[in-house]
Amino acid sequence: MPKVFISHSSSDKERFVLPLAERLKDIDYELDTQTFEGGKLIEGEILRGITESELILFLISEKALQSDFVQGEFSSALSFWKNGLEKEIIPIIIDPRVSWNDPKIPKIIRDSFILKHIQSVRTVETIVRSSLARISFKFEGRRRGSVFGRDEEISKIVNRINEFASPKLLCTVSSGIEGIGRKSLLREGYRRARVGQDFSEPMQIQLEEEQGLDDFAAKLIDLGILPTKKSDYLSLGHAERFKFVCKYLEEISELNEYILIQDNGAIIRSDRNLVDWFSKLLVEPFEKSKKPMLAISAQFRVDPKEIAKYPRLLSVNLKGLSPTDRATLFSAHLDSGADLLDKAQYEKFLSLFNGHPGQICFASTLILREGPVMAWKYSGEISKYADSQASSVVNSIKNNKEAYFLLQLLSEIGFIDVLKLNDISELKSGGDAINSLVAINACDFLGSQNELISVNSLVGDYIQRNTFDMNEKIQEIIRRWGIDARKALLEDEFSEADARIATKAIALGGGAEIGALLLPSYRLAVIKELYDRKGENRNLKVVVDLCSGLLSSGLMMEDHQEQQARYYLCQALARLKSESRFFQEVKHVKGSNRDFLEGFYFRLAGEYDRAIEKQQEVLRRSRGISKASRELLQNLMAQKKFSEAFSIAKDQYNRRGANPFVLQPLIRCLVMSNVRKGKVTEIEGYIDELNQIGSRLSLQMALSEGALYKAYCLGQIGEALAMLDSSINEYPGVVYPILAKISVCELGRNWDQLAATIELLGRQADREPQYRDRKVYCEVKLLVATGKTRDAIRLADTLPRESLFYEGAQAAARGIDVDLEPRFD
Fold first, then answer.
1. What crossing angle do the helices spanning 696-714 and 717-730 adopt, rounded to 10°?
2. pLDDT value at position 436?
3. Who contacts 397 (Cβ-Cβ below 8 Å, separation ≥6)?
4. Which residues, in sequence order, are CB contacts of 23 under 8 Å at separation 6+?
5. How many CB atoms lie within 10 A of CB 791?
6. What values do phi and psi take at 608, rounded to 5?
7. Are strands 443-446 and 313-317 parallel, antiparallel or unpaired?
8. Coil, strand or helix: which one is 446?
9. Cβ(286)–Cβ(312) under 8 Å?
10. Residues 6+ apart with CB under 8 A from 726
11. 315-332 average pLDDT score
């Protein structure tokens, strides 16, 4: 492992240096009293220590700047650095009396390095270990995004900051589609307005939808600017917690720093309104602050009504680049590789671009990596990048096994400490893997010194959606890391990365240890993961118990967190067909989510007209709610209104591209429609798209939908049954291939196979009660088909009248033909 040289003043030894050394005792470092002979600092030994070390850590304080020895260490280390020798230098200010532009700090350090105020020993330890991992893996740091063609937006930010007649600006929000340059705009706008240190990266944090004020505070504490423990913060009352955050932000502002937040729905909600705690921040006086404290790269655009209410908030929405700026950016990205393209090739690639900076970066990376001929094979991916950038990014990296494995791991956890890379045996050249992912904007860095690596939220969601079950090697890594992470939670030594790993590990264990998680957002993350599981891995009763436990836990929850817990509770109750409890709980759900959940329940109960009415009401009140559109689609399909359903399915396909959950109903609508024989080529194209996605989930869907296509469109019953058997065996516990096989068995009048498949459905019903009545209905159909009409009537009468399948079973038992057409659930 690389060696560390720790430069410091002896005056800081007791309060900071020795506690840090104790934490770093398992690594190789130089520190005067421990490593220099006889405890004497002599010039030759200092030079030897610096020469033998790959990482030089300067702990800057008032006393250190007055020390001749420290100034000599500055000079020695910088001489190596200026001569191009591989030395990583990390200067950290540990004294609040020292400013980042103090003239006693050598000018070259002020101009060339990121100077951060960090008073937490634990945070400095994390930075050192992460830096050693970076040196070991030889990967590059964060890449600045482009700000080509953004002069108007940058001027808007600069002018507002310098507008002295208006209330001083507290925060700027940048919105626009993922990868369009939201963070780059904020960095450049603030740099030109002289907010933050010159040419320095801001401290970055990320907030997820389920997180709130406590999570924001926890992430601020992790930055280490003040030596605060999370347990001290959590011992405060609600009002005191808010005051703590305000004080922390003022401290940051006084140090001429600001926080850059990647907001994935925690601050600006999906309804475009601001969350309550942030609204309160916007009206705080912050009298000590002279410049903005926050910059937010937001997944959702702020409602103009919200902006009008808060004069200290500025909102900038980014659109695509102009044709001229596209060409300029493309040439800049190619740089030394410009001679790879002749004029015709250059124009050819340029014609693919639609104004998305990430698209141009993606194309340039492919050209430099693969050459223009091979890169052109991805022209389809490049041209549709803005609409399906996640699939484009993932498909381009799949052949790089290490990078893809790391991307899968990050998609499961969200972000990890860079130092964890040393503990992943699958990564032989982790630096190359990270560089590959950063180059195509699949990953970015967080923290005060880039000590965390995070996944692009679109890419992470895409991989999660297309993952049938978690990779066993990744499960093993999470379980192993989870042991230390849970221990850190108990010892009040945990970082947000530890909390994230502990959350994943607890979810893998079925949620039994959820009480160890101190914040509501951590528990919500476990609940979400357990609910989202597929097939036999999902236990809805556990979800109900965990939601109920969270709601009665007494933890301080914000309104949106309580609503999320109730949302998952009601979804699980609806699937469990717990009618009385569902309607008791759904009364506490607010807004359009209540209508959505009631519609969801009515669909599962077979009351399709009421379900459609509810989802249409959601869409009237909140345009563009995709989950309501999906529910509306499933209701229409259940009623066999395939023409209406197809128009919704095709619209979703045009909006969202090749998403398995979009393709599956699209194929089903065509296969089950009266015009299916004229749509053979179109159906085959959509099935090919499922196969091309290549995930276990999409391949399972391709098998099931392909089998229905073979049976209904081509009449190939035997082939269809073989495909469904393969799908059932490959994906145990998934209901779709079972339902599809029941339908094909009836179509081909294969009663023995139908009986065996109904047994499989019965096993599914043992786990998910919503399938019990359907099993009875299928048994009724089988009894009629095999001449056992009296038994069929008796069995049909056992279904309750309110059952979704009561009328169908009664009709079938009395000889009225009813298809066993597979439905979604």
1. 160
2. 82
3. 403, 404, 407, 436, 437, 440, 442
4. 121, 122, 125
5. 16
6. -65, -40
7. unpaired
8. strand
9. no
10. 703
11. 86
The rounded distance, in Å, linking the Cα atoms of 482 and 508 is 10
From the list 58, 66, 69, 68, the residue with the least C-alpha distance to 92 is 58
Task: Give the SS3 label for residue 139.
Answer: coil
- Say whether 60 sits in a helix, a strand or coil: strand
pLDDT of residue 211: 95
Element (H, E) at 664: helix 660-671
CB 196 within 8 A of CB 254: no
Whether the pTM exceeds 0.85: the reply is no
Residue 213 near residue 242 (C-beta atoms within 8 A): yes
What whole-number distance in Å separates Cα of residue 500 and Cα of residue 514?
13
Q: What is the three-class DSSP state of 818?
A: coil
The predicted-structure confidence for 754-807, as pLDDT tens digits, reads as follows 999 999 999 888 877 778 888 999 999 899 989 999 999 999 999 888 777 888
Tokens of 231: 């347990």
Which residues does 411 contact at the CB level (< 8 Å), separation at least 6? 455, 459, 460, 463, 464, 467
Residue matched to tokens 């944090």: 205
For 99-132, the pLDDT digits (tens) are: 888 888 888 888 777 788 888 898 888 888 888 8
User: Assign residue 492 a region: left if phi > 0, alpha if psi is -120 to 50, beta otherwise?
Assistant: left
CA distances (Å), 470 to each of 395, 448, 507, in order?
19, 31, 12
3-state helix, strand, coil in the chain (%, to 5): 60, 5, 30
Q: Which of 711, 692, 714 is nearest to 702 (CA)?
A: 692
- Strands 55-60 and 4-7, sheet pairing: parallel
Q: Which residues contact 755 (CB under 8 A, 6 or more apart)?
A: 782
- Can you give the length of the chain in residues? 825
CA–CA distance from 784 to each of 302, 311, 459, 810, 815 (Å)?
Answer: 59, 72, 50, 11, 7
Task: Return d(Cα 541, Cα 769) in angstroms, integer.
Answer: 11
Query: H-type helices in 357-471, by residue range?
Result: 357-370, 372-376, 379-383, 385-397, 401-413, 430-439, 457-465
Contact status, residue 758 vs residue 775, Cβ threshold 8 Å: yes
- What does the block give as tokens for 86? 């591989």
CA distance 230 to 782: 62
41 close to 6: Cβ distance less than 8 angstroms:
no
* Half-sphere exposure in the Cβ direction for 574 (13 Å, CA): 25
* Token pair 């498949």 in the structure block, residue: 757
Contact yes or no for 157/190 (Cβ under 8 A) = yes
Average pLDDT, rounded, for the chain: 85
What are the angstrom distances between the C-alpha of 201 and each of 195, 197, 257? 11, 8, 9
Residue for token pair 């209508």? 595
Nearest to 505 by CA among 519, 524, 484, 520: 484
Tokens 């024989």 sit at which residue?
677
Q: Give Cα 28 distance to the centre of its chain.
A: 36
Angstrom distance (rounded) from CA 210 to CA 196 = 29
Rounded Cα–Cα distance for residues 192 and 12 (Å): 36
Helix (H) or strand (E) holding 615: helix 608-621
Burial class (CB in 10 A: 0-12, 13-18, 19+), 479: middle
Structural contact between residues 522 and 499, judged by C-beta atoms closer than 8 angstroms? yes
Beta strands at 452-455 and 443-446: parallel, antiparallel or unpaired:
antiparallel
Any residues with CB less than 8 A from the CB of 452 and at least 6 apart, and which? 130, 415, 416, 417, 418, 445, 446, 497
Element (H, E) at 58: strand 55-60
**Cα–Cα nearest to 233, from 255, 218, 213:** 218
